[in-house]
Structures are given as structure tokens and as C-alpha cells.
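Quick log. Single chain, no ligands specified.
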Amino acid sequence: MKLLEGQTVGIDLGTTYSAIAQLDANGSPVSIPNVDGRKITPSVVLLGEDGHVIVGPSFERIAIEDPSRVVEAVKRQMGNKNFFVVYQNKKLTPEFISALILKKLKQDAEATIGPIANAVVTVPYYFNDVRRKATQDAGRIAGLNVIDILNEPTAATLAYAWNQGELGRAELKTKEKTILVYDLGGGTFDVTVVKYSPTHFRVLATDGDVMLGGMDWSRRIVDHVAEQFKRKFGADPREDNERLRALEQECEDAKRQLSQKSQVPVTCYHQGKTLTVALTRTDFERMTGDLLQRTRDTTELVMQQAGVTAGGLDELILVGGSTYMPSVEIMLKQVSGRTPSRGVIPEEAVAQGAAIHAAILEARETGREGRLAQTVIQRLRAVNTTDVNSHSLGVKVTDPSNKARKINHIMIPKNTGIPKSVSQRFVTTSPNQQRIHVYVLEGETVDPDACTLIGDFVVSGLPANLPAGSPVEVTYSYDNNGRIQCAAREMTSKKSAATEIVRDSGLDERGLDAFLALARDYQVE
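-> predicted structure:
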């Protein structure tokens, strides 16, 4: 993606909080505060009257508003075509609502650093291609030239290695390090194992869950308190949206306090009645133990896939606000045999890593001395990265053991280093077959319907009387920029066809233009 004239930044578009950062002239990643002076902005959108949109409103403001006008955790819906919010007789998609958050971040940062043109936006490693395209669309709607979509654990690792003074320092003879990044945010979870030296950054394995995060821990407290209230008074505060919102905020505050205290009171008001529950950290950890276990299982799986034992890690990095929970650190110490590092600020590391990646791309394209010192540019240009694909790429084929069934045959397994190219031979399934329809799938399961269709193409004009079982060669290529090249060739006639899947946009240009115009109509505050 070509850079435009203007400032280049890194953005962490989070489920519960978002942040924006940039490298300063000396090469230090710096989080840019919003108009309130805070380095993180709540990813909450209040759709007010007359087109006035408030991003990151206070809880007091939310409490007096119609709950139907408040949109939270929209990141979990990215790429979901069935999710929308009706506002002023218009259907607002997750991309558009996310664009409002990005627009707010952009506006506030521009008051400090000037006009922003280019941005690297982060996503959970386990986001599939559809979700990534939706994120890129959100950036374009917000008026940003999105030069790359970066995985959050990769960003956090960049921030850690760069701040250690190691990355990009070719003169250093530091040995290669293996680190694990455990990223538990408000709404998503990732764990990644990375190897890096001063000049090479390589992802070994990754996995995660886009529907697991701190809000799920908070929800357990909500349900616990609500059930006790219901047993005592026969009424359920969760059935009243206004009361539920107040209880959710109370429980979120209690969760945060339990990271420092052994017990906190949680008070619930509903229908003129009041109940205060004394919640202990032990109670909280018991009722959320299964959630923590899910992250442990994933962590152990990724270490196994990376071929790393507990003693083989040089560092374990905590990212995401939910890692402040003491139980997280205790569990990870059991898994890894070492105390997790607080070497980065959990809420800011992803945005700062995105800023470093953005500066690397800028240095490679321009290479000129400008805002950054020439020594910083040289250091940035010395960094080389090797990534892996987070989802398997497959092709829909007939099951050899059951001709009536279609299966997903994986061509490039997840956690394969990219770039990668692979070719395999298949056969036609019926005599006198006229065409071959190739479906490109993303997913791990055998069932094609449980995978995501990200592209398809047709090889047509096959020769007459072609016998069943004629060979067909299929080739998949996956490059560093997320572009996927797929081709198929019928070997008898040499007829072929191909497609390129480029993460440019999930929306068509007409849809993007409509949302761009709509975004201009809304005044983001």
C-alpha cells in the first residue's frame, strides 16, 4: 500500500478500549492522548440525536441514555453481515461503527501531531480474512490510508523487543530469543510464540479466541449477583436494560478492584430494593475458572505447536488489560516455569507496536530523513519479519471414501511460515466433465460448511469425452502481504484458471463511498 502525504500512526482498535501511537523523532513509541488527556479511549459509541455521535462517553452519560443507542464490543461483530444497528433509518454495520471510533482517535491525535494520512491497524491473530477486510474497510471509512493490518501479538512483541533496545541493532551479537505473548483483552484472546534476533523477527505459532475476553469475566459477576438478587426478591435486574447497565458497570469496577483487594462489595438496585454482595477474590476465581482454563489450554497448545517447552522460553509477555488479574499470572507461571514480564504497558503495547511497524513500512518506502532521525530509519530498515498464517487454507473436494460427500482438503495448514506455495493433484469426478469449480476455504474443520468461503473460480472449456479421474493440479500461494494466489489446471487439455484474493476491501467501492459520505455527515465528539 502506497503511503500518502501526512503523518503515519499505529492504531489498536480494541473491543473495550482503543489507542493510537507514533514513533517520536528519537525512535521511541509514544501513545497519543485523546482530548481528555487519556492514552486509551473506550470503544463505546453513543448514537445521539441530530447526527451527533459520542465515542467513549462517560458512564454517567451512558446511564441517562436509551440503551438501544449505546453500541459496545462491536469488534466481536466485525465481518458479521447479519449484525447492524438502525440509526436515523440507516443500517450501521460493524465496519461503520468501528470507523466512528477510528475517526475519533484520528481527530484527537491530529490536535497533537497534525494531519494523519496513513495507519497500521491491529487485529487479533485469529481474525479470519473476512474480519480483516472489515477492519480495513473501517479504516478507509474513517479517512485513513490503511497501509497494513497487523496481528496484535506481533505488535506487542515488536514493542517489547524495540523497547529492550535490541530490535534493528545489527551491531549487537545478542542470541536469538524465544518469547511467548499472552494477550487477554476486553473481548478477544491471543497467544503467540515468537523468535527474534536484532535483525529477524519470526512467528512460530499462534492461536486464540475472538469471543473470549475480560468482559466474559465481568459477566460472571453480573450473573452471580443477579441470581442472588432474584433468589431474595423474586425479580431479575437483568430484565431491565437500565438496571443491567448499572450492574454491569458495578461488576466491572469490582473485577478491577479484586486485582488489588481480597474482597469487594457489589451493590445492586432494582425495583426499589437493594442487595449488597460481598464478593471475594476466591469466589471470583472459582466462578471464572473455566474461562482461565480455556486460555491455559490454548497457551499449552501453542507452545506444543511451536516446539517449545516450559524451560525453552526466554520471556513471557503480558498484554491486554485483563492480564492484571492475579490468577492469570499464577497460571502462566505454572505453565511456563517463569514469572511473566511487565516489560510493556498492557493497554498501550499493541498500539505502540503498530506504530513501530508503521515506521518500518515508512522507512522502507521513503528511506528519507524527515521527522525521524536517520539513525532511527537505519534501525527500522534493518528489521526483517517472518509471519505465519493464522487459519488453514483448503479446497472443497469430493471425499474419496464417500463420493456423496464434500470435504475441506487443507492445502496450507495454519501456523505455516509465509510466504508459502504448494501444489497438489486431484482428479475429475465424472465422465465428460465440462468445468471444474474451485472453492477456496479458510478453516480447520473437514466440513466445508463450517469453514469460510473466501474465493472461488472456474476452469471451463474442458475437452469433450474427458474421462473421470483425469488429473487436475491445484496450486495455492500465500505471500507476506496476505495475498492468496490460487490456480487450477486440467492436465490433459492444459486448460487453466486462477484467482487472486487480496485483502483490499470487503465492501465494494459503491458501499464504501456511501459510508464515507455518511461518516462525514456525523459529527464525532
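The chain has twelve helices and 28 strands.
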